[in-house]
Design brief:
Blueprint lengths: L2 H9 L18 H13 L6 E10 L9 E2 L7 E10 L4 E7 L11 H9 L9 E4 L6 H9 L3 E5 L20 E4 L8 E6 L3 E6 L6 E10 L2 E8 H9 L2 H11 L9 H27 L11 H13 L12 E4 L2 E4 L4 H4 L5 E2 L1 H6 L21 E3 L11 E2 L2 H12 L13
Parallel strand pairs: 1-5, 5-6
Antiparallel strand pairs: 1-3, 2-3, 3-4, 6-9, 7-8, 8-9, 10-11, 12-13, 14-15, 15-16
Length: about 425
Amino acid sequence: MYYPRFSKIHGNFKLYNSKTNKADRIYKIREFTDYLSKKWEEHYYPGRKISIDESIIPYTGKYPGFTVYIKNKPVNKGFLLFDLADPRNGYLIRGELYTGREKRNNIGLVVSRTVRLLEKYLDKGHIVFADNFYTSIPLVQYLTSRKTGYVGTLRVNRDKSNVPLDNGMKKGEVRYFNSPDYPNLLLTLWWETILVKALSNCIKPRHISYNLYRKQAGGRIYKEAPLVFKEYSKNAKGVDYANNLVSTFRHLHRTSKWWHTIFTHYVTVSVNNAYLIYKYNKQKSRTLKYQRPMYRKDFIFKVIRKLIYSNGLPNIRDCDFHVSNNNTYLKNNDEKTCFQHTPTLIERFEKFGYNKKDHIHRIECNLCLKRTIYCCKDCDNAFDNQTIKLCLECFEIFHKDLFLKREDRRYNPLQP
């Protein structure tokens, strides 16, 4: 896309709102964020294990009033999101944007927000993994009544025990506690390097051995740890995994409008989720070894091309003439000028030959995005010496549209 066109689209870009409720701080993009969140849930259903955590959309501009600053986060300034993700692949299932402090309910702010995120997955036997920000006894009791498991670390001031339970504990010692007041809850204390606590309602008090991957004279070292902490460390980082995937190809354009940042984040998450669905389906139906799924960067470029090329037509610059073999041809409906060009092999295939397994899948037709080894060298002058890659099926279609008059072309809404 050329810069003048991009600047015009970016400067006049605005989201449509059917309802303007100015009491809502993000009413400008509320419908857009709700729509995408619903689509994320519709097109993917997670496995048995789900993780909840918070993430931050980086933003350092003028504060609209609900940005946050969290000291210990790697990205500590921006908009706060409460996310629900699948720990297997990092698919972001749902995201709720923090817009300021809410009114306190009977069950508490954190509990009500967690229940809102898990509304669709209650009473179905899922297991939720969360850190000590979400873990509390009322939340675990409520999830137990809704047939949902929970595993999470616990803060020191939330166990509601008047007696110190860690008296006389030594390094490596584990203690399990169960109370008659809360028969379904299991409190686990483990003194590894520091004292850590975990609360769960679906994991039994048992140990599991794991390898420390340190070779010594006697062989590998195996260490025992509670099963609760082993499962937590394995499945509680689904949101962090999703944020890592999203941040790899983050939109970095600066803008003076705060809602642009949230808009681009939601679009980036949507593209990442689409790639994860594509990758899963591709691996599931794979038969030959060389038919592996494409890289994420190639997938993103393919999505962009599909959005720019409307109705399968290339977005061609509107020029009044066409240069070929030092001859100038005007754009008109004359069939003689429509078929002056001939397909030729791409230069690297012409020199070194081609192997179907290794090279062809890298070259895509500009029109239909299929694999090809042909191009049109006569079109280089009209397109600033860029090689126009075309398959034999699309060669005639491309040149017919190129030589037609502007009013005779098929409608392309993205054509300037």
